[in-house]
Every structure is written in structure tokens, then in C-alpha cells.
Amino acid sequence: MVVPGERAAPGRGPVRCRCPGRGAGAYPAARVGARRGGAAAYTSRWGREHWLAPLQEQASPVPASGYHAAAVVIGRRALGHKRGDRPA
């Protein structure tokens, strides 16, 4: 049904209302976020334990921190490296 004064999108059917509780907004974001927080904490801890010392040994104008170590872990994971592949 076309309301006077409004045009229907040609060939796409009626325009649907954007009601709350539809699509991505229906997912339980609080539960998903809680699970992700544990993974982030583990990555930070693991990176600090295994990568912080090698990063601090490098000559750099900015001293390495736990954030840098976690970034190394995340980047290596994205490249497909296993977590056990670390410098000796």
C-alpha cells in the first residue's frame, strides 16, 4: 500500500519498518561482550608473559608495554601463527 505523498521503491516491495528487536540488535550483546572480555584478558596476559621482554630488548624510541605485546599476539594470530611460536 502506498501512502499518498510517498513513493514506493520500484521493484523492492513495500518498505518495512525498522522495529527494535530485529536483525543484529536482537543478539544478546551483553553475553557476547562478557565472553569476549575473557579472551582479551587472556591475550593481554599471554602477550605480556611471552612477548614483552623480547619487545623491550629492541631499540625503539617508545618503550614497549603490555598493549604492544598483546598487539603482537593479535597480529601473529591473524597471520596464522600458533601461540607457541615465540622467540627463544
Give keywords.
88 residues; mainly alpha; elongated; single chain
Helix content: 40-55%
Radius of gyration: 24 Å
Largest sheet: none
Low-confidence stretches: none
Cα distance, first to last residue?
70 Å
- Which structural class matches the secondary elements? mainly alpha
Secondary-structure element series: HH
Q: What overall form do the CA principal axes indicate?
A: elongated
Strand content: under 5%
Overall average pLDDT: 75
Total number of beta strands? 0
Compute the number of helices: 2
Task: Provide an overview of this structure.
The chain is mostly helical and 88 residues long. The protein has a domain at 28-78. The chain has two helices and no strands. The chain has helices at 29-57, 66-78. α1 crosses α2. The longest helix is centred in the middle third of the chain and has 29 residues, at 29-57.
Briefly say what this structure is.
By secondary structure, the protein is mainly alpha-helical. 48% of the residues lie in helices and 0% in strands. Helix 1 crosses helix 2.
Q: Can you lay out the helices and strands and say which pair or pack?
A:
Elements: H1 29-57, H2 66-78
Helix pairs in contact: 1-2
